[in-house]
Amino acid sequence: MSNPLSDMEKPDVIFAIGTNMTECHPVAATRLKRALRNGAKMIVADPRRIPLAEMADLYLPLRVGSDVALLLGMAHVIAREGLIDQEFLETRTTGSEQFLAHVAEFTPEWAESICGVPAADIEQAAKWYGAAERGAIYYTLGITEHICGVDNVQSLCNLVLMTGNIGRPGTGINPMRGQNNIQGAGDCGAIPANFPGFQPVTDPANQAKFEKLYGKKVDLERGITKVRALERAAEKTMKAMLIVGENTAVSDPDRKHCEHALTSLDHLVVIDIFPNETTALADVVLPATAWGETDGVYTNTERRVQRVRQAVPPQGEARPEWWIIAQIAKRCGIPGFEYESAKDVFNELCSVSPIYRGLDWDRIDKGEYHWPVPEAGHPGTPVLHETEFKNGRGVFTVVGYRDPAEVVDDDYPVWLTTGRRLQNYHTRTMTGRASGIDYLQPEEFLEVHPDNVTAWGLEDGGMCRMSSSRGSIEIRVRATDKSPRGTVFCSFGFGDVRVNDLTGSGYDPVTETAELKVCPVRLERV
Amino acid sequence: MTQTSDAIEARTASQTTIVLDGTEVPFCDGETLYEISRRHRKEVPTLCYDDRLDAFGACRLCVVEVDGFRNPVASCTTKATPGMVVRSTSETLERHRKTLMELVVSENTGGSARNGNIDVDPLRGLKSQELSNLATRYEVDGTRFAGATSGKSRQDDGNPFILRDYDKCISCYRCVRVCAEREGDYAISVMNRGFHTQITTEFDSKLEDSACTFCGQCVQTCPTGALADRKALRDAETPGELKKTRTVCPYCGVGCSVDMLSKGDKIVGIHPAMDGPANQGALCIKGQYAFDFIQHPDRLQTPMIRASNGQLVPATWDEALDRAAAGFLAANRDHGRHSIYAIASGRAPHESAYSVQKFIRAGFASNHVDNCSRA
Lengths: 526, 375
Ligand code: SF4
Ligand code: SF4
Ligand code: FES
What we know:
The complex is a heterodimer.
Chain A: E1 13-17, H1 21-24, H2 26-37, E2 41-45, H3 51-55, E3 58-60, H4 67-80, H5 86-92, E4 93-94, H6 96-103, H7 108-115, H8 119-131, E5 135-139, H9 141-144, H10 149-163, E6 172-175, H11 182-187, E7 194-195, E8 199-200, H12 204-214, H13 226-234, E9 240-244, H14 248-251, H15 255-263, E10 267-272, E11 284-287, E12 296-299, E13 305-308, H16 321-331, H17 342-352, E14 394-395, E15 414-419, H18 437-440, E16 445-448, H19 450-455, E17 463-468, E18 471-479, E19 487-491, E20 519-525
Parallel strand pairs in A: 1-2, 1-5, 2-3, 4-14, 5-6, 9-10, 10-11, 15-19, 16-18
Antiparallel strand pairs in A: 7-8, 12-13, 15-20, 17-18, 17-20
Helix pairs in contact in A: 4-7, 4-8, 4-10, 7-8, 13-15
Chain B: H1 2-14, E1 17-20, E2 23-26, H2 33-39, E3 63-66, E4 73-74, E5 85-87, H3 91-107, H4 130-137, E6 162-164, H5 174-183, E7 188-191, E8 198-201, H6 217-221, E9 227-229, H7 230-233, E10 242-248, E11 257-263, E12 266-272, H8 285-289, E13 304-306, E14 312-314, H9 317-335, E15 340-344, H10 350-364, E16 369-371
Parallel strand pairs in B: 1-5, 15-16
Antiparallel strand pairs in B: 1-2, 3-4, 3-5, 6-9, 7-8, 10-11, 11-12, 13-14
Bound molecules: iron/sulfur cluster (2 copies) and FE2/S2 (inorganic) cluster.
């Protein structure tokens, strides 16, 4: 997030797109509710009539995967109505001429023809956001898990750059992270393109620095993403894999392909807290300590660096992941793993990462710092881009609309979109084992508009078979007008309803994030 | 914290002060007499007050004397004005407070109030002992105004999280207000007035049939334990001292601070951290109630390796670690550094992800590392 969570109470116009915030980030949503109580206006764009949509002043029910069209239409109106922040445009951005010429073509009427939102509502949304004193954008995986995920994000950035809604309290562009420490995993350099602290691996200065730090030649090329690695495993050119705390076999799209890839490896080591479909395929399974059993650090969605602490002893022989990995490294003859504690590891991270340089284990005791914290004594950076962007000026990107990798047709006439529910989390390895949670949602169900339930010969509460070109599953039907006509929804939380057997039609060409949000399917009563 | 520094600013800026118990003290615009008193460590009792909520002024326990006012005023709703002369305690005030407490405790039939011993298990909720602490302070036992009680228990509400023991309710409305003001859920409401007041859900239904999201905020603000944490109370009889450990919720990226409650080796519950920087005391159902997965019997207990017959069998750490290392060394030797890949976790702490990437980069001169973007 460019702005802190506390800022969520401050905007006068909120634009929430592709985020089911009341269910996925409930405590953040309470802040938005307070902004609404203070008189803020809210625009919600989502294919489903989610709870946030019920609270909105303007709800834009767009067709799944058509975000770019909607956002182009909005940019067109902002330009046409003279709502551009000229001073911001001139002093802080580049590429506006090309961009403005591009959007002149895309009227709200054109956008309506693609995304299905009435042109008048697109105009209204653009006018509100464009005229906002403090306009803030919030989004999550509903924006990124598409083949055009990067285009979606860039389209949002374009709106921000046009209107100057950034760098001030109550504004900004704010992705909400789904997992407790997914931000931290990136901060730590567990990504193929960056050393810790988002230092590009292809920059010779960084290469020299890490060669010195790690006492070893470094790779001059970026690594490959997880998606490609699984492909190579299936082709038998990737041979050994270490997987920590991820049920790769079911959480990734196209489950059959994943299982095949993992079984094709010569050597699979899995570190986790529970047995699952992935540990079942491993050659070595190592039990890790869980939350509450180990000391460590998480970074939340607002870049706040916070400590977690051990309260109870580990179960069985479980050990902290850093200890386990250090032991393997030592046995491989890799130097630099002589850690005594989590504190040692974290302090080393701080010493190699420019965004953490001003932090250490003791300094983050109370969790008051947002990175970057470039040196000791620095107060941290709750609001990003106050006076300039990371690389100087904000760059407009010319983005065009593309159809999803697969679109509905006669064989698969229904859009399936997936996500998360309030009570359950991911593949339920955790919530599924917490007592009481099943009381509220004992099984997964498919949300179908009542009209469609009748029209397609389904039964509310009955079972149906849902098929895509990759596979088929059985799932219980629930009639609800949360789903728009022609689009159905379920979560990917329950292992016995293998939704990711169906998904996985394509990947974003830049990030290789899977298109999990859109998948054409067919439904039949069973 | 901020109030203190604001107050210092106020002193230097405008010199607006009141006289509190004979001492001149500064205040900032909009501060209430209660806030000023608390800042100066005056022990003004409260029951309907929760500093995250709009002041309500219902219990009148927080009354103070102000010169020029004939009757004592509720300090939680009265804003300071320059020159006010305020007494936070006096014999009259203490007598008044004691009488009020006697009235309140008489409403509270639960927890053997009648023999002067209101014993509330702290597992009921974060603020559940407020009333019993005040009862002790004012030495009241509820015998003076025996009779009316408000509400009736909802034994039929079998939800696994929230116990609704309205015999203990004192009608402070904190649960209703936190639900409306902080959560924006409006799941709980108030029926009737006076001794007939009853806290209920919309349409008097069970919570699961209401707008309730089971965030547990009502439980955590209730000053009597009338709303209680049913999950934590399972361990009421578990021996051992209750220990609190400050940590962060393991679920979503909001990063809410919590105090993990444990007895001996067992995790028994969660309290929201009122000073948590990301959540300021708020939690959702996952952070509040989905904590016990870590001690589920399914946990992996020992290292395992695949035996020659294809089965995963338990092994010692040495055996398993040797085997893990050998496989990576063999792949590196036979197929080169780019035949090895690692996926770090987005749920484990930093130390895990940092070690994983260092293992690949420093170990094999490779950038073949990623994390689970969705699992
Ligand atoms: S249930 Fe608790 S919080 Fe709610 S009104 Fe009664 S005493 Fe107050
Ligand atoms: S309590 Fe809820 S909102 Fe807060 S971090 Fe946990 S899952 Fe997220
Ligand atoms: S605390 Fe002031 S009236 Fe209840």
